[in-house]
Structures are given as structure tokens and as C-alpha cells.
Write a structure and sequence with these properties.
The chain is mostly helical and about 180 residues long. It has a single domain, classed as Arp2/3 complex 21 kDa subunit ARPC3 (Orthogonal Bundle), CATH 1.10.1760. It is about 70% helix and about 5% strand. Strands 1-2 form a two-stranded antiparallel ribbon. Helix 2 crosses helix 5, helix 3 packs antiparallel against helix 4 and helix 4 runs antiparallel to helix 5. The radius of gyration is 17 Å and the shape is globular. The chain starts with 6 loop residues before the first helix and ends in a 14-residue tail after the last helix. About 35% of the residues are buried.
């Protein structure tokens, strides 16, 4: 039955997953913190949606994630929807490069999304005086490592929500 879901419905289910992750992270205070660095699941979901379902779903999920960030009032208004839409589209375009290796693609796209977002936050929030560059670099590397750890788990959930099973390995014919 999951195979017959339309692309729009699967994308809507991923947006519901984004909203659920956002509500759990913000209202219940269940922010995952390791070594003082919080992992944010929204960029991981956007990257996984782009890799699993393509650039259209990546764009829609990116827009939803960005709007959720703007609703929270964290940062410059309008920057997050634009940023996450671009990241979702980019992850979707790399979908073909990682066919059969979606875990690697999701890890790479998640790390790139989180790293670029950290750099943009550092530059646009003008934290030069309040945060040292070494502390910023340490936090950014830890966030990237956490993204590598959690992105396969998020990929499994996004695959289940989107109705896609793990792709089967290609079987080569025996040599004749």
C-alpha cells in the first residue's frame, strides 16, 4: 500500500515528520546534547528527504523547516527558509550520485548542511567577539560528527515515511 502513495502525500508526511521533530525538540526540551553540543534533527530530515525523494521533496521539506525556524524567532527572518530550500534542492540533485548508497549521501548532505549553517550563523550573528574561533570550530566539528551518527537513523525513518524500502543491491549476471 505504501508504494501507491503519491509524491505529494509522501512529501506531506515528511513535513509532518519535520513538524513533529520540531515540536518534540522545542516544547518538551528534549534537545540531544553531547559534549555541550546540541544536535538538530531538522537539517538531517531535510537532507534525507532530498536524497530519498528528490529535489521537489527536498525543496518542500526545506521550506517547512525554514518556516519552523522563523516561527521560533531564531535568527534573521527569511534566511532559514531560503537556506533550507537551497539545501533540500541540492541534496535532491545529488540523489542520483548516491543511488544504492543513500546512507553515504545522507551523511554527506547532513554534514554539509549543518556546517554551512554554522558558518552562516557565525557570520550573520556577528559572534566574532563573543565566541572564539577555536570554540566555534570545535562545536562545528562536534555537530558534524553528531550528524554523521544520527543521519542513518533519520534516513530509516524518512524511508519508512516516504514508503520506500531500502534499495536492493544490483545482481550481476554470472560470467559466461
Amino acid at each position: 500500500m505504501n508504494q501507491k502513495l503519491s509524491v505529494g502525500l509522501r512529501t506531506a508526511l515528511c513535513i509532518v515528520l519535520l513538524a513533529l521533530a520540531y515540536v518534540v525538540q522545542t516544547s518538551l526540551g528534549l534537545r540531544i546534547s553531547i559534549f555541550g553540543v546540541h544536535i538538530d534533527l531538522l537539517p538531517l530530515i531535510v537532507a534525507a528527504a532530498g536524497i530519498v525523494m528528490g529535489p521537489g521533496a527536498g525543496l518542500a521539506c526545506g521550506l517547512a523547516a525554514g518556516v519552523l525556524y522563523d516561527v521560533s524567532g531564531a535568527g534573521i527572518e527569511g534566511m532559514y527558509p531560503l537556506y533550507y530550500m537551497i539545501c533540500g534542492i541540492a541534496c535532491g540533485f545529488f540523489r542520483g550520485q548516491f543511488r544504492g548508497r543513500e546512507i553515504r549521501g545522507t551523511m554527506l548532505c547532513s554534514v554539509c548542511t549543518i556546517t554551512l549553517l554554522a558558518v552562516l550563523r557565525y557570520l550573520f550573528d556577528f559572534q566574532f567577539g563573543s565566541t572564539g574561533i577555536l570554540a566555534f570550530a570545535r562545536d562545528m566539528v562536534l555537530q558534524a560528527l553528531l550528524a554523521v551518527v544520527f543521519s542513518p537513523l533519520v534516513l530509516v525513518v524518512v524511508r519508512a515515511v516516504s514508503g520506500r524500502k531500502k534499495p536492493k543491491a544490483a545482481v550481476l549476471p554470472p560470467d559466461a
